[in-house]
Amino acid sequence: MTEKKYSLVTANETLLIEREVQRLLTAFVHKIDDGKFGEAAELFLHGEYEVEGSKFVGRDAVESFLNGLVQPHHDGVRRTWHSITNIAVEIDPLGDSASSVSYYTVHQQLEGHPFELVRAGRWHDTFELFSGDWRFKSRVSELRMSGLAGLPSV
Question: Domains, the chain, ranges and CATH?
């Protein structure tokens, strides 16, 4: 029998918090795939993003990292597609912070090449409630599989 965890967070509040965390996670991948790196980085205005031992703190550092990572193409269309799955959210008993682990996959299709896997891994995220809104506090990107050598994970 598992130990009962006591929380000040109601069942309805739990669902709302989980939904807010999922909204942040999916907002990030949509903004990346739409090439809106400034908007994606804005989600880390008060947070940090760690990738393969390098840490990017705050919006400007995250935006610089993203701009240096994703290559624009001559027609302006991004050739990558991010998916996020297996989202597991844990909520602090006080309801003012949360964490999640999720899987990400990145695919791409370049002209004249097949649709291919670029990267797959896990994101370990923490979130905080600030003035009634949820925001990223930290992200650690853990690369698990790579279809292309030499590229960092996102």
Answer: 11-146 (3.10.450.50)
For the chain, 154 residues long, give each residue's pLDDT as a single digit of tens.
Answer: 455 566 788 999 999 999 999 999 999 999 998 889 999 999 999 999 999 999 999 999 999 999 888 766 666 666 788 999 999 999 999 999 999 999 999 998 877 878 888 899 999 999 999 999 999 999 999 999 887 654 555 5
Which residue, 119, 117, 118, 136, is CA-closest to 127?
Answer: 136
Which single residue is written with the structure tokens 């999922």? 22
pTM of the model: 0.86
Q: Quick one: which of 106, 93, 76 has its CA closest to 17? A: 93
> Which residue type sits at 154?
V
